[in-house]
Amino acid sequence: MPLFPALSVLVLAQGIQVPTGERIADLPSLELGERPLDFVSAPDRRRLYVKTHQSLVIVEGQKVVQSLPMNGSSMHGLLLSKDGTRIYATDAASNVRVAKVGDRLEWLPSLALPEPAAKGSAYGCGLAELPNGHLAVASSRGNEVAILDPARGSTVARIKVDVAPYDVKLAPDGKTLAVTCWSVPAEGRGKTAPTSGTPIPITSN
User: Fold this and answer.
1) CA 56, CA 75: separation in Å to the nearest integer?
2) Which tens digits make up the pLDDT trace of 106-149?
3) Closest Cα to residue 89, out of 67, 106, 113, 70?
């Protein structure tokens, strides 16, 4: 029997009802001692991979069985490859951290995101695996989606999007990427203010 149900939570909040009609308080919980940011389950749902603010964690049998230091994680972005052999996790700098999946996780060389026009860290967020094995990665400070080739460790394309992309999802046809962003370009939109080197439209009373 799978350890994790279709809906899994890590830190419970009292009084929240989920779409299934269950209350979160009735579901299993686990105190990690760190702030969970993203998670993905293994196909058999017997193992949960969790990205916290400082680690990549494996949970099995309601217990933390391994914790790899991340040295600063971005607020979103964790992906298990389709073949189940790699975990990809974006960090708070300009890296996609790569872990080899086995009985225990093992860090492999990271993939580098392109430097943003505003300079500094790219701050990658959500990821998606493309049919050819490439990764589409939301570069929050770069205002773009970077297409990375894990086999070569290189960037093969940079797709400009709106301001501060947060997540990317691949459509079932494998041909379309949906990208969510925190804001839109400021041009022609009235009053603006800078955020991390990019002007965005603002409203004021």
Assistant:
1) 13
2) 999 999 999 998 899 999 999 999 999 999 999 999 999 999 99
3) 70
Cβ-contact 118, 141 below 8 angstroms: yes
In the chain, the largest separation of any two C-alpha atoms, in whole Å, equals 57
Q: How far is CA 86 from the centre of its chain?
A: 14
Structure-block tokens of residue 173? 């046809």
The per-residue DSSP string of the chain comes to --SS-SS--SS--TTPBPTTS-BGGGS-----SS-EEEEEE-TTSS-EEEEESSEEEEEETTEEEEEEE-SSEEEEEEEE-TTSSEEEEEESSSEEEEEE-SSS-EEEEEEEPPPPTT-S---EEEEEE-TTS-EEEEETTTTEEEEEETTTTEEEEEEE-SEEEEEEEE-TTSS-EEEEEEE---TTSSSEEEETTEEEE----
